[in-house]
Structure formats: structure tokens, C-alpha cells
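Chapter review. Work through the record for GMP synthase [glutamine-hydrolyzing] before attempting the end-of-chapter questions.
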Amino acid sequence: KILILDFGSQVTQLIARRVREAQVYCEIHPSSVSDDFVRSFGAKGIILSGSHASTYEDHQLRAPQAVWEAGVPVLGICYGMQTMAVQLGGEVAWSDHREFGYAEVRAHGHTRLLDGLQDFATPQGHGMLKVWMSHGDKVSVLPPGFTLMASTPSCPIAGMADEARGYYAVQFHPEVTHTLQGTALLTRFVRQIAGCRGDWIMGNYVDEAVARIREQVGDEEVILGLSGGVDSSVAAALIHRAIGDQLTCVFVDHGLLRLNEGQMVMDMFAGRLHAKVVHVQAQAQFLGHLQGVTDPEQKRKIIGREFVEVFQAEAAKLKAAGTGAKGAKWLAQGTIYPDVVESGGTASKKATIKSHHNVGGLPATLGLKLLEPLRELFKDEVRELGVALGLPHDMVYRHPFPGPGLGVRILGEVKPEFAALLQRADAIFIDELRAAIDPATGKSWYDLTSQAFVVFVPVKSVGVMGDGRTYEHVVALRAVQTSDFMTADWAELPYSLLKKVSSRIINEVRGINRVTYDVSSKPPATIEWE
Ligand code: XMP
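C-alpha cells for GMP synthase [glutamine-hydrolyzing]:
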């Protein structure tokens, strides 16, 4: 496995993703870990990340001394290169000004890291790489034992290597996709240079994860909040595979789910997997508390609070009695690696634009032990694991769905009749997206979009149908493309598809007589309307 030491770069997680794509297991830890930690981690290779800022204080950050005594290859990236230089006896020219952008780097020598990797060659026959680079601070004097590995006109030492010790460093960022050979470079480092085997694939992981869960849980019982989303579904399938009936899933139906969602979740988990699922029908309770409430944040808070209350009541019952002799001792959650790394506080400074509800406080109040079997997986790995566990492709590759559900897609007051209209309109949109295949890619428009849904707009507009005038509601279609949900573009859906969706909704859903398409990107709009 590979140890990634994080100096606080925004893109450290991408290093981990690229390494995992090379089928090598890795973990991110803060650069401040102790020497003992580094020694006992047992890495076959170590990667030093970049850093987010160039303040004077950050220049004091150093890799633990044990990194240099571990006898394994080390790759420094950006700030990681600079600290490598300083710690091994070279020099760095620090600068207040840093720029992140496109650069063309020339490779020097025939290092194991870069030899043969190139995007184009100069007329003189020099291999060139197209990369993304942080300009500003730069290594000015190579440490003893190092040779020049890469350069640009503005950064004469853009890469350095000490091949005898297996130390490599680059000023550019191989982890971002703009660096075309970045994945190849990282793969070389972890596979060829560090010698990792490349056996990190989800098919292998299932047995290991199952064994670990069995060992952790023993004969005790586990409760899991099942939402029908990807993470909780995969967690449920995995834990069920490990401990069968010792697992009880609690599925809270707040009445603001997609059409037939409740049925689908029950069919899948209770029906096909034969898992124990408690289907809590709490529709009336949720909708009751939402009556008369129009403020989006208020709605979120109410739904979040009710959810905790309902779930807690169920969990308390299972804890007291269980179905076995002892009662439940564990609460399972579908926490995934990005959640862990972000809450670890290495570099997360995101502003809270909307309060996302979660059930993070539950284990403490319930006195249950926490079981998080997906803690070390990225989203795409969770999906692969789901497939390896036999969950249907459509379920595992679903668009995300917010916790408060249709509660934030019915603008203003949430009324049961609005929810019923919205569910039907939304189902039509999703069906048509799945059915429409883009000839250029061969993929469905559902797969070509990251999230798509219908929003209920509580205004009425005039229409005409047959001989009569109508005065009914408006909906908006929303479809976006994004890789991280922090920014998003509205999807350029084909007009023919929009036309079909619009005519089906207006003809089939009585109460809606106008369909619009949202052409706002994020920022400045958000993906959801509330
Ligand atoms: P926005 O609307 O902020 O959404 O651009 C970004 C992503 O977050 C989802 N989202 C939520 N998820 N609880 C959730 O679990 C929420 O309250 C919530 N609000 C937004 C949204 O669907 C999108 O994927």
C-alpha cells in the first residue's frame, strides 16, 4: 500500500483516486503524523502532496523524518517537491505569488518515472509533457544525489530524481486530468517503482470486507438506516452478505421519495436479498409537520429532525429487544472515504450554502457502536463493490437524491397533492432520459447527466386543452453535468427529448399544463432549487 501525506492541497484526494485507479490501495494522512506512524504504516511507497497556499507558515511544514529513513520510494508533488528539496539539502526560492496553469515541461535524462512518457517531441527530439503546474515557489538548488528530471523556461528545475534512493519529485500536478500523462506517471510510481502489485479490485475486496465485518461484529446485531441511495444500499448488501439476519435495515419513508421508491427498496432488499427490513411508514407525520412551512432551511431542519426522531424510536426498539436474545449493539452507516477525509479536517474550508441533513449524531445518543464498512472507498469503488455484490446496475449507478427529497423540490409549502404530481412528472422525465440513447456515445442521457429531476413550481399558468381553458401548475426540468457537484453545467439535452418529456408530462399528469427547462449553471445557481 501507498501512504499519501497531505500538506493541505485541494487536490490531494485526486492523488488517492489515481493511485486506486492503478489498482493499488492507498490512504491519505496529514503531513503532521508522527515518525512512529510512518514506520508502522508499512508503505511500499510514499507520496507527498501539494499545499493550498503559499503563506510563510506553510513553508514550515515538513514531512516526518521517518519518511527518509523508511527505505522506500518517495514521490514529491509541488509543495511535496519543495519540502523534499529542503529536507534533503537543496534550496527553494519561496515566492508570495503562485499561479496554477497550463505548462509544457521538457523531460531530461532517462528516469524510470518519465522515460518514454510524452505528449509530443520538439524538433530537436526532446520529449515534452503537457501539464498543470503551480508556478511561484521553486527548487533553486538540487539536493545532493539528485539530477534534473524536467524543466520549463520559467521553472528550470520542474522535476528532480535520485534514482538510487527511489526519490522523485515534480513541480507540476500529475493527479489532475489536465496533466495528460499524469495517471501514467502515478501508475509507474506505484506499480513499477514502489512495486505494488495492483490487486486492489472490488471483486477481491468483497471477501476481505466480509471477513472483517464478521470479526468486528461477532454474534451481535446491527441496525442500518437504509435510504435507497447508493451508499446505504451497498453497505446493506455487504453487511447482509457478512452477517445475514444479524442485520436489520430501517427504511424510513417520509412520503417525499421518488415514485414507487418505497416498493423498489422493499422488493430489492426484503424480496431479492431476503434481508430484514423495517419499512417505517411515516408519511403522515412528516407531511403534518411540514404543513404551512415555506422556508427551505426550515423545511430541511424539520425533515432532518423528524428523521432522527423516527429512526431513533425504531433503533431504540431494536436495541431493547432486537430479534435475537441480546438486542442491537451496532449502528451501520454508509460513510465513504471522501466524508472521512473531509471531516478529518486536512483542508476542508467549504462554506455551508445549504444545511445537509445527516444522522451523524445518532450513535452517541443511542449508545451504539459504529460500523462503517465503506469508510475507505471512493464513490466509484462503492459502485463497483455494489455490482460485485450483485446489486442491479441501475441501482448502483443512480443519480444522487437529497435526504429531504421532494421536500426541497416542491418550492414553498409541501402539500401531499403537489408531491403526487411531482412524483409522476419526475418518473416520466427519468424514464425518457433512460430510454434516450445519444448516438455519439452510445450512452443513455440518464448516464450522460449527473443529476436530473423535476421541480414543482407552485404557480399556476393558463393553458388550453381541447376546447377548454386550463389553469394549472408549472414544473421545471433540471438536468446537470458535473464531476464534483460543487460546480455544474446545465445539460444540453436534445430538443427531441425535451419535446417528448414535455408532451408526456402535460398529457399524462393532470394538474400540470406547462413544462420549462432550467438553463442555469452552478454557480451562481445551485443544482436544487431550494
Ligand atoms: P446544490 O443544490 O447545493 O446541491 O447545488 C449539490 C448536491 O447536494 C444535494 N443536496 C442535498 N443532499 N441533503 C442532501 O442529502 C440536502 O439537504 C441537500 N441539498 C442538496 C443535491 O441534490 C446535489 O446533488
